[in-house]
Every structure is written in structure tokens, then in C-alpha cells.
């Protein structure tokens, strides 16, 4: 329980409950369910405190738990909405095949991934927009468009060491920004 002493679990609700609730409520549009999932998040975190590796902040960790809880909720809702047998031919030469119009259009995990990617892309765009003007072009060229370092240095008239200093500082700033915008969106 040494880790638990480093993390004051008694402060978690005061520090994070409101932002976790807002995050869940926006995605679920159900106040009671959002409250339940936030409560479940805290309970899961307390149960798994010994597994917390401190590779991220407690806040980031709690948001990742909550995201999984929301996705699990969506999965349960999706499975309740379907009657899989009603989508299959029951007779004739096509027996066992999909009835026209009921062919699967993608797995739920692909839909979830697409939604998360869109949200992340939006948050990342806002975070890049908050970078100092000179850094924006450099970051986009190097990290987004994946241009060679020499090309980026030539285009922006900077040295290789200056490029890596800017990239490092930008990554730190982007990480901090994403923790705020992605996990608190």
C-alpha cells in the first residue's frame, strides 16, 4: 500500500468527480448513468490502486477507466438492441445467410475507435493551435506530415538541434494540453 500513501485517495472525489461527471454526462446524456459510472470508476480505481504504475497522472488514469466504462455500457446497449436470429434467413437456399439490409456494417469496436479517433483528432488540432506560432509549422511538418528532419530545418531555417528542442518542448506542451482537452472534453 506504499503507492496508496503517495496518492491521497481521499481527495480523489473532491478533485476529479465533477470533471469526470461532466465528461460522462456529455457522452451519455443521462445524468443518473453518468453518476453511476463515475462512482464505478472510483471503485475500480481503488480496487486496482496496486496496479497503478504512475506512468500518467491519477487524473489521466481515472479518465481512462471511465472511458472503458462508457464503452462497456455502449456495448451492453448494442447487444440488447439486436435479436441476431431475426437477421438470418430461416428457410430456402439462403438459410443461415443475412436477410437483405441486415448485413453487418462494421464491428462495434471499429465504431468506438472511429469516435475516439475523431475526438482525439479534434483535441489534438486545438492543442496544436495553442502552440507558439513558430512551432506550429514545425510540429505539423515533422510530426503530422512526417517530413525528414533536414527538410523541416531547411524550410523553417533552423538548426537540427533547434528542431529537436522545439519538438521536445512542443511534445511536452501537447501532452499537457491533451490531458486537459482529451480527458476533460
Key descriptive features of the protein:
185 residues; mainly alpha; Rna Polymerase Sigma Factor, Chain: A; Arc Repressor Mutant, subunit A; disordered N terminus
What's the short story on this structure?
The chain is an all-alpha fold and 185 residues long. The protein has 2 domains: 80 residues, Rna Polymerase Sigma Factor, Chain: A (Orthogonal Bundle); 62 residues, Arc Repressor Mutant, subunit A (Orthogonal Bundle).
Sequence-ordered SSE layout with sheet pairings:
Blueprint: H1 2-6, H2 12-28, H3 31-47, H4 58-81, H5 108-129, H6 133-144, H7 149-156, H8 160-181
Question: In this structure, how is the largest beta sheet organized?
Answer: none
As a percent range, the share of strand residues is under 5%
Uncertain spans, ≥5 residues at pLDDT below 50? 1-5, 81-87
| Mean pLDDT value | 77
Radius of gyration: 23 Å
The global form is elongated
- Overall structural class, as computed from helix and strand content, comes to mainly alpha
User: Helical amount among residues, as a percent range?
Assistant: 55-70%
How many domains in all? 2
Q: Would you give the CATH topology of the largest domain?
A: Rna Polymerase Sigma Factor, Chain: A
| CATH architecture descriptor of the largest domain | Orthogonal Bundle
Order of helices and strands: HHHHHHHH
Tally of strands: 0
The top-level CATH class of the largest domain is Mainly Alpha
Determine the number of helices (DSSP H or I, runs of at least 4 residues): 8
User: Cα distance, first to last residue?
Assistant: 32 Å
Amino acid at each position: 500500500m506504499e503507492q496508496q500513501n503517495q496518492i491521497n485517495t481521499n481527495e480523489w472525489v473532491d478533485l476529479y468527480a465533477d470533471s469526470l461527471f461532466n465528461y460522462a454526462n456529455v457522452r451519455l446524456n443521462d445524468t443518473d448513468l453518468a453518476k453511476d459510472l463515475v462512482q464505478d470508476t472510483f471503485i475500480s480505481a481503488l480496487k486496482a490502486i496496486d496496479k497503478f504504475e504512475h506512468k500518467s497522472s491519477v487524473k489521466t488514469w481515472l479518465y481512462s477507466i471511465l472511458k472503458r466504462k462508457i464503452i462497456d455500457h455502449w456495448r451492453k446497449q448494442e447487444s440488447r438492441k439486436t435479436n441476431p436470429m431475426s437477421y438470418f434467413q430461416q428457410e430456402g437456399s439462403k438459410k443461415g445467410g443475412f436477410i437483405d439490409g441486415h448485413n453487418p456494417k462494421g464491428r462495434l469496436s471499429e465504431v468506438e475507435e472511429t469516435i475516439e479517433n475523431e475526438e482525439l483528432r479534434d483535441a489534438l488540432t486545438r492543442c496544436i493551435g495553442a502552440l507558439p506560432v513558430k512551432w506550429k509549422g514545425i510540429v505539423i511538418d515533422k510530426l503530422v506530415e512526417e517530413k525528414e528532419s533536414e527538410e523541416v530545418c531547411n524550410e523553417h531555417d533552423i538548426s537540427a538541434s533547434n528542431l529537436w528542442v522545439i519538438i521536445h518542448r512542443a511534445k511536452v506542451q501537447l501532452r499537457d494540453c491533451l490531458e486537459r482537452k482529451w480527458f476533460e472534453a
